[in-house]
Structure formats: C-alpha cells, structure tokens
C-alpha cells in the first residue's frame, strides 16, 4: 500500500477531493492511505504560532521551519529514506509531468509539504525536502491544491486503482500522444453522428483509425509532443496521410 502524508495548515481542504470517486475507492480497497498532519500541532508555544516576520524586512509573513520539520519527522520515522520522497509544493519547483507521476508512483511513501502565507523558511527546501515540484507557471495561494493534483495523478498510476486493466496506458501523455476521440450512444445526437468506422465491427480498421486520430490531434494541438516521439513505420505512414489530407491532397 502506498502511504501519502500531507503536511498542511488546512487539513479540511483535503476531505472533498480524497473522499470521492476513484481516490475514495482506492483508499477503501487498501491500495492507498492518506493522512494529513497539521504543523500547528507541532508549534508548542501557547498560541501555536506557525508564522513570523521575515528577517530583512518586507511585507507578509513566513512559515516557521520548526513546526514543519517536526510534522514531517513525525511521519517519516518508520521508513527508510530510499523508499520515500519528501516533496515541497512551490511555484519555483520542477514542472510536474506524467513522467514525474509515474516516477513518484514507485515510492512506498510520499510526503507533501504545502507552503502557505507569503513564503516558507527556505531551510525546509534546503534541508528537509528531497525535491520541489510546481504544477504550472502560475502562483496559487498555497500548496494544497497542487498537492491534490499531484496525489490524484500519482494515485491513478498505482496498480489496481483504475478498474480496467488498460486504463492509464491509454491516456494522453502515457503513450506520449494525445488521445483519440471517444463516442457513446446515441449514434446520432442533434444531427452529429458517430464516425462510421466505429460501428463497422472491423477491429483492425478501428485500431488504425484511432491511431491516426491520436497522431492528428497531437499534430494539430500539441506538435511539440511529436518532436521526441518515436514514430514507427505505420505512424510515419499515417502522418504522411494526415499531412496530405491537410494540404487538400
Ligand atoms: N504553490 C503556489 N503555487 C504553486 C504552484 N504553481 N505549484 C506548486 N505549488 C504552488
């Protein structure tokens, strides 16, 4: 079972995303355990203070290092360090990708530190976190939503979490291409009908059509992904077809 620990001043934020749908089922099935630990419980002064003024001056408050170190240490005592990863969520971290989700899914324990206020004492990044991760080039009010995003993406990579055996393998970015379009009933909806090939019953033809649509979607929407993509001979032929069709040929 993978163990996930979240270090956050706002534990209640996690009840929604982790209490529904696939993550909920994974937890109930014993594939995943998720605990949230509040650094405030490790601030032992009378008022449980977790932030303070920045050295050197400036606006805003900075999260103190000691409650965060103690909170992390309270959840990492049991496991060897090569089986766990301590991840600081911050906009200055490495970009989160499907590749990173796959890599993190290989650990036994993940600890996510959610920064808040205007900042977090940098000794947490330097001496406590193994790495810092960002979910995109924008700044959120805290690391909670980013941690939820990363946990969700990692959880669905764990064996058994997605019902169908081929679930994650079919995804965009798992293969390196965007997905082909999917349709369900009704066959005709407001005059828009499902592509005939999908009703043909010809599985080889359907597989070829889907591969071609994946390549076409990727070429049109995310051509950057094709730069490093290892095209096989059939892919190359399909791409030629797509390019000919696009130039009206
Ligand atoms: N904290 C605030 N913004 C963030 C981002 N984009 N990614 C990760 N953590 C963050």
Automatic annotation (TrEMBL):
Keywords: Cytoplasm, Methyltransferase, S-adenosyl-L-methionine, Transferase, tRNA processing. Its EC number is 2.1.1.228. Residues 2-226 form the tRNA methyltransferase TRMD/TRM10-type domain. It holds the Pfam family tRNA_m1G_MT. One of its GO terms (molecular function) is tRNA (guanine(37)-N1)-methyltransferase activity. Belongs to the RNA methyltransferase TrmD family. Homodimer. Specifically methylates guanosine-37 in various tRNAs. This is tRNA (guanine-N(1)-)-methyltransferase. The gene is trmD.
């Amino acid at each position: 079972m993978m163990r996930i620990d979240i270090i956050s001043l706002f534990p209640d934020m996690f009840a929604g995303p982790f209490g529904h749908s696939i993550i909920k089922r994974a937890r109930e099935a014993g594939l995943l355990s998720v605990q949230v630990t509040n650094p405030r419980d490790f601030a032992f002064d009378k008022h449980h203070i977790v932030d303070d003024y920045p050295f050197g001056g400036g606006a805003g408050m900075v999260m103190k290092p000691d409650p965060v170190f103690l909170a992390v240490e309270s959840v990492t005592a049991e496991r060897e360090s090569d089986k766990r990863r301590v991840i600081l969520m911050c906009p200055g971290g490495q970009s989160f990708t499907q590749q990173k989700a796959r890599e993190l899914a290989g650990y036994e324990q993940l600890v996510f530190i959610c920064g808040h206020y205007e900042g977090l004492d940098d000794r947490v990044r330097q001496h406590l976190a193994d790495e810092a991760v960002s979910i995109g080039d924008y700044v959120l009010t805290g690391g909670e939503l980013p941690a939820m995003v990363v946990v969700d993406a990692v959880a669905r990579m764990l064996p058994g979490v997605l019902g169908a055996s081929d679930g994650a393998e079919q995804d965009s970015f798992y293969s390196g291409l965007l997905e082909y379009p999917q349709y369900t009933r009704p066959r005709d909806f407001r005059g828009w009908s499902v592509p005939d090939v999908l009703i043909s019953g010809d599985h080889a033809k359907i597989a070829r059509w889907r591969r071609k649509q994946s390549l076409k979607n990727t070429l049109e929407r995310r051509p950057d992904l094709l730069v490093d993509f290892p095209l096989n001979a059939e892919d190359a032929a399909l791409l030629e077809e797509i390019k000919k069709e696009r130039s009206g040929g």
